Amino acid sequence: MPRRGARRHHGIVRVTHWCAAALIFGMIASGLQIYRAYPRFGVRGGPYLPQPFQDRAFPEWARLGGWLAGGLNWHFFLMWPLMVIGGVYIAYLVASDEWRKLLFRPSDVRPAVEMQKYYLRLRKDHPPQGKHNGLQKLAYTFIVLLGALSVLTGWAIYKPVQLSWLTRMLGGFQAARYWHFWAVWLFVGFTMVHVTLVFVADPASLRAMITGWYHGRFTSDEP
After folding, report:
1. Residues 28 and 188: beta-carbon distance below 8 Å
2. In the CATH scheme, what is the code of domain 6-214?
């Protein structure tokens, strides 16, 4: 029998998780306000990089800032605490060696496939796992890499002259905007899947992210 009431999340993980969630929400909303000023990717007159929202305005309730300057001010204001929060989280993973439990490796491919089968109801029994299953490791690794891409493309847009080498490496200013924009929708998609799985597959994990203690079906024997 797996033991119940396992310690799951350190306080640093919980604080950075919820702070990052709030800050990312603000970054996305202010980013949509900035996007409204020029809803396409490419120099005026084209050709434009393909995307499904070209020349479309997002609803006012989804935007933060009210106008272009307001959106820029909010975006640049929120990016600093978000980078600090991200840095604290990464530093904790390295210092605590927790990154070893979160990093997706080739050996996690099969466990991730089996977990996906379980979620799709193609497998009845829950696959064995440690503190994190293969699919969770894939998600965590992906979101850290996506965060790194967002930071790099964001700086390339923010300082295209001072960091011209970075802007060139990303394909130019408009290409950097393009990848930065798509990172937003990957964050949105990840969040939707993440929240859905929390409530559908393991609601106890939400309490664990609030209290630090996990009381549920999938309690691991790992500390």
Report:
1. yes
2. 1.20.950.20
The structural domains of the chain, with segments of one domain joined by +, span 6-214
Given a contact cutoff of 8 angstroms between Cβ atoms, the answer to whether 76 and 33 are in contact is no
What proportions of the chain, in percent to the nearest 5, are helix, strand and coil?
65, 0, 35
Q: How high is the pLDDT of residue 122?
A: 85
Q: What is the pLDDT of residues 134-161, one digit of tens each?
A: 888 998 899 999 999 999 999 999 999 9
Residue 4 structure tokens? 């119940």
* Model pLDDT, residue 5: 64
Rounded Cα gap, residues 103 and 170, in angstroms: 26
The helix or strand, by DSSP H or E, that contains position 7, with its residue range, turns out to be: strand 6-7
213 by DSSP, 3-state: which? strand
In degrees rounded to 5, what are phi and psi of residue 192? -65, -45
Q: What is the DSSP letter of 214?
A: E
Query: How far is Cα 198 from Cα 116, in angstroms, rounded to an integer?
Result: 14
Tokens of 48: 């434009």
Rounded to whole angstroms, what are the CA distances from 57 to 3, 37, 45, 137, 183? 52, 9, 19, 36, 19
User: Which comes out higher in pLDDT, residue 135 or 46?
Assistant: 135
pLDDT at 3 over 50: no
Q: Which residue carries 């006012």 as its tokens?
A: 60
β pairing state of 6-7 and 213-214: antiparallel
Number of other residues whose CB lies within 10 A of the CB of residue 185 = 13
Contacts of 131 (CB under 8 A, 6+ apart): 8, 101, 220, 222
Cα–Cα distance between 137 and 70 in angstroms, integer?
Answer: 37
